[in-house]
Amino acid sequence: MLLVTCPYCGPRPEIEFHCGGEAHIARPAEPAGLDDQAWSEFLFVRTNRKGVQAERWLHQHGCRRWFNALRDTASDRFLATYEMGAPRPSAGGEELR
Amino acid sequence: MRRFSFRTLISEAFKGHKGWERQWRAPEPKASYEVVIVGGGGHGLATAYYLAKEFGIRDVAVLEKGWIGGGNTGRNTTIIRSNYLYDESAALYDHAVKLWEGLSQDLNYNVMFSQRGVMMLAHNLHDVRSFRQHVYANRLNGVDNEWLTPEQAKEFCPPLNISRDARYPVMGAALQRRGGTARHDAVAWGYARAADAMGVDIIQNCEVTGIRRGADGAVEGVETSRGFIATKRVGVVAAGHTSVIMERAGVRMPLESFPLQALVSEPVKPVFPCVVMSNAVHAYISQSDKGELVIGAGTDQYVSYSQQGGLHIATHTLEAICEIFPQFSRMRMLRNWGGIVDVTPDRSPIIGKTPVPGLYVNCGWGTGGFKATPGSGHVFAHTLAKGEPHPVNAPFTLDRFRTGRLIDEAAAAAVAH
Amino acid sequence: MSQPFRLATGGRIDRGRRLSIRFNDATLEGFAGDTLASLLLANGRHLVGRSFKYHRPRGILSHGSEEPNALLSVDRGPGRRDPNNRATMVEAVDGLVTGSQNHWPSLELDAGEVNDLLSPVFVAGFYYKTFMWPRSFWEKLYEPRIRAAAGLGKAPETADPERYAHLHAHCEVLVVGAGPAGLAAALAASEGGGRVILADEQAEPGGSLLHETSALIDGMTAEAWRARALETLASRENVEILPRTTAFGYYNHNHVALLERLTDHLAEPPPHLPRERLWQVRARQVVLATGAHERPLVFADNDRPGIMLAESVRVFVNRYAVAPGRRIVFATTGASAYRAAADAKAAGLEVTLVDLRPEEDCGAGLQTLRALGCEVLTGHTVVGSQGRKRVSGLIVAPLGADGRVGARRTLPCDCVGMAGGWTPAVHLFSQSRGKLRFEPAIDAFVPGTSVQAERSVGAARGVYELSDVLADGHAAGADAAGRPSERAFAASPTPAGFTGIPLLPTDADPAKLRAFVDFQNDVTAKDIGLAVREGFESIEHVKRYTTTGMATDQGKSSNMNALGLVASILEKPVPAVGTTTFRPPYTPVSFGALAGQSRGALFDPVRTAPLDAWAEEHGAAFENVSLWRRAWYFPKPGEDMRAAVARECRAVREGVGIFDASTLGKIEVVGPDAAELMNRLYVNGWSKLAPGRCRYGLMLKEDGFVMDDGVVARLADDRFHVTTTTGGAARVLSHMEDYLQTEWPDLDVFLTSTTEQWAAIAVQGPKAREVIAPLVEGIAMDAESFPHMAVRLGRVCGVPCRLFRVSFTGELGYEINVPAGHAREVWEAVLEEGQRFGITPYGTETMHVLRAEKGFVIVGQETDGTVTPDDLGMGGMVSKIKPDFVGKRSLARPDIVAGGRRQLVGLLTEDAALILEEGAQVVADPDQPVPMRMLGYVTSSYWSEACGRGIALAMLADGRSLMGQRLHATTQEGFATVQVVEPVFVDAQGERIRA
């Protein structure tokens, strides 16, 4: 079970959280302007990176706030967690345990 | 290929088994192949086998990063069934079941396919409605599936708790008698041996590090840890690592890879005669020939390539097992492990062409790919050989995510597969 | 004579507490402090089981959790029998009933032994090569036979009456293993006051110190040092010592799982204690002091009862005061066996030692042992053993400098102690994903690079010298606690060097050699050779093909020998062959402990609505809807479900009914941008909905498919009362919050779940107004002032309420929302007021029938996650004005706008009395060949009391174009003819609802 550091509450066990998948995929401002291919990519295509990836987490059984995290999907280690809306930190940031 | 039989086994027994040959060669990769399969799991090896056997394409290499069958093929709970709701799925999985039924003889390798029956438990009115829908749809599709009362379910599987007082009492079950299990490792090895005998090169410890494309965008070959291999046709069958491989060809996929856990108990004498699946309480269980209770647990919630998940996934599964089979509470978990499953948005596989000429993909089997191994290999071989899909895999395109013609078994039935 | 092999003195057993156990048909005596293994040996019982495949007689190999052979069935009373218990780990308890396994008819005389005769056929992987013809025989004949022969013990047959507990803990430092390294680590780690947990799988902490009778530490006996260490630790409040506790799993982010066994060692466990407790520890730092396992030697017939590990002989002699034999031959490739031999000699046993190494390599122990009067043969290999159910002789031969095996000699004996070197227990380290490193000097894998906050110490990392072990433990403990310090210890030297050799040299025909590598799974060196010959070169392949290392001991004693064999056959260095993955658990863990208390009623919480108790008191039948328990129908005496539902339906259509709708999800959406958020989340428009009015809302996922629905009331410009489906409440709230927080944080809106706060009492039927009007204050109830789909705030029975005029039945109806604490008083007041109209409580089944008669859909029944608004005939509800809302773009995808989609219709059976099955498939031509073309399926089907016939809703391909057509729906017997009709069966004009 992962130990996830909520930027608002601090480290908590994974079962308090919901992982919402890849982060920084903004909903298009004008979906109607997208062709079917572009829209389907927004809906379904994911980087699914082996390595450091940014993803969304919700402290579901806690403060109920969404935040973003950098996690290495090969090792499951978190490199950083940060508030929704903040830019993605550089991957070399200090590792959070 | 030296045929396996009782007679050869006995004759070897007298000779100290010195006469057995390698089950597959360990060739050096050639400079080029007609077809390169990326991924030496059951699906990839089956693809190579059917390419050689059905389509006469023997100049084939199967490239495996580690050792064949070491991914999900050797990590799953080996459930085989075809009682899917949608016509497309039923056709695909039943195509596989039909091949399973003669597979040991076809490969001359005992894959121990055992049609012990797969029983899916209904625990609420929604399940009942859904399973009846499956039973009727299957009947009209020529797929066996029958409805059982709780008492009939208990008769079929005596350890089952059908008490009305259970938190989620068993309200009935859908039984596919042709469903069952097989010996997972043997499937990989059997396909490897049979494909090798027809000239397919199975190359282990060979990681694909790149897919080279020409000026026209078409595939020219693959870069590997053992050098460049030229080919005009590449079939990627890399399960959890599909996104990683495809990204090397510049193709982004509608996939996410999750850890999926399974576990076995210590072996005991026969106590569990069939396969039982309960989606409502999350339990999948059978007993192996060796005597271990083989139990499927769930996926972790986050993308991971670590083949290791959290303990809470296993404990949650065992809560369900103890709830449905109270006599197993004192059984002990012997091994718990994880695989990496690639999951599509509609939980159905993608088998077919990609936007890159010469690049084909077979992926997205999620938590249920093992059962499809022979069928998947067969239709993918057809697709690679002809450049066009077999009618059975024609609906399972990558393009369906653009058009919206999804095949959403999970949404339709709330049943994991 | 009782306990004929019990030594007269010594040991840690309590000679004052005699006990007896049953083993098969015998009653055997022992002492408190015995394990089953030591008790059996004290009684001269070496034959304790039969092997998995060949049913060979097997004895006790080891003294610890690595035991592969001595697996017993243990019966602790009704429902408390379980198989495969390692005799070396089960503490003897007075009255315990135990039995050996895997034999018929008896342990002594096992028909399964025929398999041993057939062993030339039953080689590794033989089953892959045969049993294929004729095809049908696999399932009918071969497989059942294989299954019956396989397995070990018998599974429990009845439910387990025990309780199991879960506990979560945090600590500064978790120390795994309370041997010398672990004790030193715990002492150092706990000095600073941070919480330290010290877990050890044995009944007593101390590890190897428990049988270390001769060594001195800092001038004290090992026992005195151990006692003082434990006393110090016990005196520190920040230390928790957990004996009988196995750390079995090392997961992400220093999450370590421990299993504590609480009652199995007690003859009469106190009832308040659970049997086992699962600890889930999140440790800041972990110290792994898990020790090392001794390797068996691989030689012909090395599996006879009486042949055990040399260190285990020492343990049985020193710790349990048991003589595993009177005449013991030690066979070794290393130094540690000399110590075991010396201790056995000191206990008065006859001892011979055979060392593979040439005389000059044998070290100081050689002379010491000879000085004690023991025969020592150096430069000798072992080529076989004699005896059947107990070893009677060990066959040895000199090994020439050229590697030639000389003349054989048989050493008579009744016990063999074999020492093939040491394998650090790196299991937990490996589970933590640390990378192993091969250390040629000790022929073993040791922890290399750490990945998590842990460190291995002592024998677990190949440090065997006792003084070094203690210093290592101290330094690691201090460092883990963040207070680095070093300390030197003075201790007696520890002989530990060895020559690693996976198969002892022999002159026998390798094809006939029965030299066991994996004892439990009956894997021989020959099997491993065969696997490699057949191309299984990766160690994982060898493991799977031969099953070596896959038994219940997970290869603790066998893995290194198997690996060494593969490496030597392939002529590769060991690290090039690789090492197998160590998977949790370290030792098997009961399902019960893992499941914990989540059983029965606690398996999943039961959510009950405020009126659940009333329903129960009034005889309701219940159904589960997600976590909720809901009243399904209210049968009167003598009524079956159909009669009850028919009565309830009549009451609502003709008079008035009352229904607990409290489980519906409720979300308060508040803020200046509330309407904008609603506009973006629902297909309908909300800007023009006036305060005081309600609207049916439909919500899509971004993929365009229906996600949820419900009536939404606008209470004020900036306030909506949103309802959701019962099962969808949490999902909908999360969906809303997700968009609000992540996509549109600029919107000024607050979302609050109020599902549990509001009870919702539905009063439905032509008399509904007359029933509730007298109870309502402050709300004009006439139809004009309070029309259908309106909401009013006021009081009912003096309680503040939100009164909705809404209907899911098609009748005049209200839903009275009151604070949940007032639900029952209001419900009972309405009931009383309704008496004069025969007010009838109804359940979810009647609610379903009534809504189906009106063609109202239920999300999750008519929809399945692949249905669009248009499919439901609700295309007109989708706003054409809004440029965007969640799911809108997806509705324009090619296959969503294409023809052939399934659409909601009604079906009437030709036979009015017939009720179709929900899930029945519909076809145009029932005589077509299989596979048939299915048009769709029945989503809802009921007996309609109002129509006097069966009615059904269905989703059919292009269903709206099929109106009036005759189609065919499946039944259990075949097909029934149905007619496609509009999906509304009662009051198509909707006059009653607006009454």
- Please estimate the helix content of chain C: 10-25%
Report the sheet-strand fraction of chain B: 15-25%
Detail the poorly predicted runs of chain C: none
* First-last Cα distance of chain B: 36 Å
- Give the CATH architecture of the largest domain in chain C: 3-Layer(bba) Sandwich
The side-by-side strand order for the widest beta sheet of chain B comes to: 5-6-4-14-15-16-13-17
Strand content bin of chain C: 25-35%
Number of domains of chain B: 2
> In one word, what is the shape of chain C?
elongated
Number of strands of chain B: 19
| Mean pLDDT across every amino acid position of chain C | 96
* Coarse shape of chain B: globular
- Largest pleated sheet of chain B: 8 strands, mixed
Number of helical regions of chain C: 23
Total helices of chain B: the number is 12
**What count of domains describes the coordinates of chain C?**
6
CATH fold node name of the largest domain in chain C: FAD/NAD(P)-binding domain
Describe this structure in words.
The complex is a heterotrimer of chains A (97), B (417) and C (995). Chain A has 97 residues and is mainly beta. Helix content of chain A is 9%, strand content 35%. The longest helix of chain A is centred in the middle third of the chain and has 9 residues. The C terminus of chain A is likely disordered. Chain B has an eight-stranded mixed β-sheet. Chain B starts with 5 loop residues before the first helix and ends with a helix. Chain C is built from 23 helices and 52 strands. In chain C, helix 7 links the parallel strand 18 and strand 19. Helix content of chain C is 21%, strand content 28%. Chain C folds into six domains: 114 residues, Roll (Ubiquitin-like (UB roll)); 186 residues, 3-Layer(bba) Sandwich (FAD/NAD(P)-binding domain); 72 residues, Arc Repressor Mutant, subunit A (Orthogonal Bundle), CATH 1.10.10; 137 residues, 2-Layer Sandwich (Gyrase A, domain 2); 88 residues, Aminomethyltransferase beta-barrel domains (Alpha-Beta Plaits); 107 residues, Elongation Factor Tu (Ef-tu), domain 3 (Beta Barrel), CATH 2.40.30.110. Strand 17 of chain B pairs antiparallel with strand 31 of chain C. Chain B: One of its GO terms (cellular component) is cytoplasm. Chain B: Its cofactor is FAD; FMN. Chain B: Keywords: Cytoplasm, FAD, Flavoprotein, FMN, Nucleotide-binding, Oxidoreductase.
